[in-house]
Amino acid sequence: MVDMHREFPKLVIYDLDGVITLKDTFTALVIRRLVRSPLRLLRALPKAVTMVCGRKEEASRKIAEIALAGMTDASYCALADQLGREIAADTRWIRPCAVQLIRRQHASGARIVVATATERRLAESLLAAAEVPYDLLSASLLDSTPSGLTVSDHRVGARKKEALLELNVPIPSAEFVTDSMTDLPTAKAASSVVLIGASKRTQRRFRETNVALIDPS
């Protein structure tokens, strides 16, 4: 649990999946699409094997595009809005201590930025339904094509940091809250890092880097 009594920073950047939520939100949307179509599921299986072999980012993009094949932007928006509201209402998904902390920080005047690899409309729906206040959202983007939707901007890893800089977020003056080593590029650029929801292995790996970790206990 994060110490509620320490002085709040002026700018806090939050990861979403694993921090505000307990599980990966866009993966949930992709799985919902795949299980509703045996053909799409069969097409995605070889890519899932590739993920196990280590080519995770490339394979996850391909699986997402298989799942989103044939979708219009309007149908995707409806699904993202529905799933976002479902996740926000499910106590098995939301991390209450993180939501409460964000509310307290925002009420104190801190600027809250949510930076996530999940898709923008899904993140917007979830954050609104869960009543998570924020000032700026940086999230992955989709493009419409004749064959369906494609991932045009996957804001994960180094791309998450680049997108924040493009949005003029002063990362060096921010506290960054994450649970994942994938976010190391942003973590290294931030003034300090808080780990919420991180595994013991991830905590150990972060301690081995040069980031300024703040003990959340």
Record the SSE blueprint.
Elements: E1 11-14, H1 25-35, H2 38-52, H3 56-67, H4 73-88, H5 96-107, E2 111-119, H6 120-129, E3 136-145, E4 148-153, H7 158-166, E5 175-178, H8 184-189, E6 192-195, H9 200-207, E7 213-214
Parallel strand pairs: 1-2, 1-5, 2-3, 5-6, 6-7
Antiparallel strand pairs: 3-4
Helix pairs in contact: 1-3, 2-3, 4-6
Annotation field: number of helices: 9
C-alpha-based Rg, rounded: 17 Å
Give the termini distance in whole angstroms: 6 Å
The topology string of helices and strands comes to EHHHHHEHEEHEHEHE
In spatial order, strands of the major sheet run 4-3-2-1-5-6-7
Q: How confident overall, as mean pLDDT?
A: 90
Structural class: alpha/beta
- Overall number of strands: 7
Measured by DSSP, the beta-strand proportion falls in 15-25%
Main sheet specs: 7 strands, mixed
Based on Cα principal axes, name the global outline: globular
Low-confidence runs (pLDDT<50, min 5 residues)? none
Share of helical residues: 40-55%
Q: In a few lines, what is going on in this structure?
A:
By secondary structure, the chain is an alpha/beta fold. The chain has helices at 25-35, 38-52, 56-67, 73-88, 96-107, 120-129, 158-166, 184-189, 200-207, and strands at 11-14, 111-119, 136-145, 148-153, 175-178, 192-195, 213-214.
